[in-house]
Write a structure and sequence with these properties.
With 241 residues, the chain is α/β, with parallel strands linked by helices. The protein has 9 helices and 9 strands. It comes from Streptomyces violarus.
Length: 241
């Protein structure tokens, strides 16, 4: 894959840290990486955004940001309230395609979930993915409630003819509860796509050196890592009642 779209089942599920892990792992495998943040919301002009955080964690990656809005809202709403131009799906696709001419891998991080609106016409990250024929990686939480939102996201991707590359758990707890443990088996079933990784909770607080060293162990070979989904599931599986 040249361009990989990264979305979540909702907000605060670990998209940026997962994007950093994918970038770090690809870089360690010798691939040149660019990270495109389609629209950054809730950050002042002088503050680092998600793309900068990915670069801090992953190291030598190219970063780009198409628009920035001060309020922590959906991009279309934030743009309207700020009186600024929104970002349209074709602009996301064009920027990603340009970066792809100069890099082995381009990671496009969305905002919130798959159908969060970027403009008044209802343009979404899914529309940008369709324009690029790009696969989509879905970041999901570990615990109770994730099966429903993950299946809804997967169904929407398929209804649009888009390729669901797989699921990455964005924040695997140090002491997972029963729901999280059971979800390791259930997530790929409801998504119809493989688990491609599990990032430990708190990974974003690691030093950059520690993050880069550990990242390949959190992601499956399809994402250039060494993580074994079946071995992880067996290790974390709950005991039968």
């Amino acid at each position: 894959m040249t361009v990989l779209m990264i979305t979540g089942t909702g907000t605060e599920v670990g998209k940026t840290v997962v994007t950093g892990a994918v970038a770090a792992t690809a870089s360690a495998a010798g691939r040149s990486v660019a990270v495109l943040k389609a629209a950054q919301t809730g950050v002042r002009p002088d503050e680092p955004g998600d793309a900068a955080e990915v670069a801090r964690l992953a190291g030598a990656v190219t970063t780009a940001e198409l628009a920035r809005y001060p309020e922590p809202l959906a991009p279309a709403t934030a743009a309207r309230r700020a009186g600024r131009a929104p970002v349209h799906p074709h602009e996301i696709a064009e920027a990603a395609a340009k970066l792809a001419t100069e890099h082995d891998l381009v990671l496009v991080e969305g905002a919130g979930g798959l159908l969060v609106r970027f403009d008044a016409a209802g343009g979404t990250l899914a529309d940008a993915a369709r324009l690029l024929s790009a696969p989509v990686l879905v970041v999901a939480p570990a615990g109770l409630g994730t099966l429903n939102t993950t299946e809804l996201t997967a169904r929407e991707l398929r209804s649009r003819g888009l390729d669901l590359a797989g699921i990455v758990i964005g924040s695997w707890p140090a002491a997972p509860d029963l729901a999280a443990r059971c979800n390791l088996a259930d997530l790929p079933d409801v998504a119809g796509a493989p688990l491609l990784g599990s990032v430990p909770a708190g990974a974003g607080a690691l030093s950059p050196a520690a993050f880069r060293s550990a990242a390949p162990h959190w992601l499956a070979p399809r994402l250039d890592g060494t993580w074994d989904a079946e071995a992880f599931r067996v290790r974390e599986a709950p005991r039968a009642s």
